[in-house]
Design goal:
about 50% helix, 3 helices, Nuclear Transport Factor 2, Chain: A, six-stranded mixed sheet, alpha+beta
Length: about 170
C-alpha cells in the first residue's frame, strides 16, 4: 500500500504543480502581452508619423522641383510607372518631364495649402489643395486646385505612383 500512496502523491503533485505554477505565471504573461502590444502600437504610430513627415517634405520638393524645371529631382520623386492625370488626361512620366523641361519657370507659382496624409503600411494617400498663379502676357490667372496623390514605399524610399488634380470653383 505504501507504493500506491507514493504513486498517488506523485500524480497529485503533477496535477498541482502546473496549475499552481500557471496561476503565478498567468499575470506575468498577460503583462508581457500587454507591453508587447503597446510597444508595437506605439512603434506603428511613430513610423506613421515619420512617413507622414517624409511624404509632406516630398510634396514640397515636388512643387519646388517643378517650379525650377528640375527634372532630375522630379525623376527621383516620380515612379517610372506613375499614373498622372493632368488637365483631365493621362500623362506618362516621360511626357510630364518633357513638359516641365520646356516650361518657362517664371510663369507659374504654386502655393501649397494644408494637406492630409493617411498611411496604410507601405502606401500613403495625400489629399489637399494648392493655389497656382500663371503669368501670361502680363496678366495673372489664379486657380485653386484640389489633389489626391498616392505614394508607395519601395526600394528604401517613398515614390509617387499616382496623382490627380482638378480645378475648384471657389
Amino acid at each position: 500500500m505504501g507504493h500506491h500512496r507514493q504513486f498517488i502523491d506523485a500524480i497529485d503533485m503533477r496535477r498541482a504543480g502546473p496549475n499552481s505554477d500557471w496561476s503565478a505565471i498567468r499575470p506575468m504573461c498577460l503583462m508581457l502581452l500587454l507591453c508587447t502590444s503597446t510597444a508595437t502600437w506605439l512603434s506603428a504610430q511613430q513610423s506613421d508619423t515619420a512617413a507622414s513627415g517624409a511624404i509632406r517634405a516630398l510634396e514640397r520638393e515636388w512643387v519646388e522641383a517643378q517650379s525650377h524645371n528640375d527634372n532630375r529631382a522630379l525623376s527621383l520623386i516620380l515612379d517610372r510607372e506613375v499614373v498622372y492625370v493632368e488637365y483631365g488626361r493621362l500623362v506618362t512620366k516621360a511626357d510630364y518631364l518633357l513638359r516641365i523641361k520646356h516650361q518657362d519657370a517664371s510663369t507659374d507659382e504654386i502655393v501649397m495649402e494644408p494637406m492630409i496624409v493617411r498611411v496604410f503600411g507601405n502606401t500613403a494617400i495625400v489629399t489637399g489643395s494648392y493655389q497656382e498663379t500663371q503669368r501670361q502676357g502680363g496678366m495673372r490667372k489664379f486657380t485653386r486646385w484640389r489633389f489626391v496623390d498616392t505614394w508607395v514605399y519601395k526600394e528604401h524610399s517613398w515614390v509617387l505612383i499616382a496623382a490627380g488634380s482638378t480645378p475648384t470653383r471657389d
